[in-house]
Amino acid sequence: MKIGFSDQDEGFRQEVADWMMANLCGEFELLRFRGGPGDEHSFVEARKAWERKLAEGRWTCVGWAPEHGGRGLSISQQVIFYEEYARAGGPGRMGHIGEGLAGPTIAAFGSEEQKRRLLPAIVSGQAFWCQGFSEPGAGSDLASVKTRAVFNEDTSEWALNGQKVWTSLAHESDWCFVIARTEAGSVGHQGLSFLLVPMDQAGITVRPIEQMTGTSEFNEVFFDDARTAATNIVGQPGDGWKIAMALLGFERGVSTLGQQMQFQNELNEIIAVAKANGAARDPLIRQRLAEAWSGLRIMRYNSLRMLSGVQDGSLRRDATIYKLFWSTWHASLGKLAMDVLGADAELLDAAPYRLGRLQSMFLFSRADTLYGGSNEIQRNIIAERALGMPKEPRLCP
């Protein structure tokens, strides 16, 4: 593990903390600790304004290279930024898909024209992105996508037809990066392409999916002859699988430390409740709290280990366990929260009877082991890609 914090880094930590204290106030005060997983529907316009505020302070895309509009911060300073942002109660980022996934992918695989045209709007907080991967018959198994795109030589456009599902914040997004099948008759990971598709057009319908929490930040997205220009394909036709795998590598990047600080905030709240209502006197509850604390430390140390290597989108062996570990840990934390709350976990305070933060976290955490690749798929990735074990038998198409 090569990451350490120098005196200069600690000075930078204070700079971040001071900026958050000076700016996450006034009109943005109501955003503290809001807009995270399970709460992404909250204060959407205010959080978009917060993105622009971050951009004014040059706190968006802090790890991007300066030529792409970023600060080019070292890994250690990026870690510090994400930790201090979460520690201060910074709201869930409306721009996180653009900043953490679309942008790094365009920077790594896009044309120079795409970089000039698309990256500045991500940096400035003016353009928001969603991810068009999963489909009704292709959730964790990305190679089974059926959305098709056909190139029209006369108009120099791709025409897309198909359906995506579980598309976070599609109704608030300006762009969607879409994995589509562009080679007729292709199967599996062959014949896929990575397309950038503008959302504001007649050929796209976004339909909300209401969850058990009563929120609907997830959506179905239907493409009915939706169009995107020839200049909006990343790489070459057929490169989609390679680019998608690199994108998943970016997903396990520095922002994982910010996610862990959000987990720490949740754990702190659970501990406070346990002390207040007497649940902490139960030795089994105390043991589970200690196990949760230990699991979070393990998560941090593994993240520092995987961040100490090359950040080029490749899925390092030590990164393959991250999704499986945190999703299982967080689901257990949700159960712990309900047990600490006791009978209060089944009660809502008063009209309009909204879920409390821990109740919402518990319900949302039920999905953690499914979205982004189910635990079963994650175990296959670990076995096949990290350990080199034989691939799982598959039925012929």
Care to give the gist of this entry?
This protein is 43% helix and 12% strand. The chain is built from eleven helices and eight strands.
Structural class: alpha+beta
Tally of DSSP β-strands: 8
Order of helices and strands: HHHHHEEEEEEEEHHHHHH
Extract low-pLDDT stretches.
Answer: none
> Reading side by side through the largest sheet, how are the strands ordered?
1-4-5-8
Tell me the major beta sheet.
Answer: 4 strands, mixed
**C-alpha termini separation:** 44 Å
Strand content: 5-15%
Instruction: Give the C-alpha Rg.
Output: 21 Å
The coarse overall form would be globular
Write the layout of secondary structure elements.
Elements: H1 7-23, H2 44-56, H3 75-87, H4 96-109, H5 112-123, E1 129-132, E2 148-152, E3 157-164, E4 175-181, E5 192-198, E6 204-208, E7 219-229, E8 233-234, H6 240-251, H7 255-277, H8 283-307, H9 322-341, H10 357-365, H11 375-386
Parallel strand pairs: 1-4
Antiparallel strand pairs: 2-3, 3-7, 4-5, 5-8, 6-7
Question: Could you please describe the fold and organization of this structure?
Answer:
- By secondary structure, the protein is an alpha+beta fold.
- It has three domains: 7-94, Acyl-CoA dehydrogenase/oxidase, N-terminal domain (Butyryl-Coa Dehydrogenase, subunit A, domain 1, Orthogonal Bundle); 129-238, Butyryl-CoA Dehydrogenase, subunit A, domain 2 (Beta Barrel); 252-386, Butyryl-CoA Dehydrogenase, subunit A, domain 3 (Up-down Bundle).
- It is built from eleven helices and eight strands.
- Strands 1-4-5-8 form a four-stranded mixed β-sheet. A four-stranded antiparallel β-sheet has the order 2-3-7-6, with no helix packed on it.
- A hairpin with a 4-residue loop joins strand 2 (148-152) and strand 3.
- It starts with 6 loop residues before the first helix and ends in an 11-residue tail after the last helix.
- The mean pLDDT is 89.
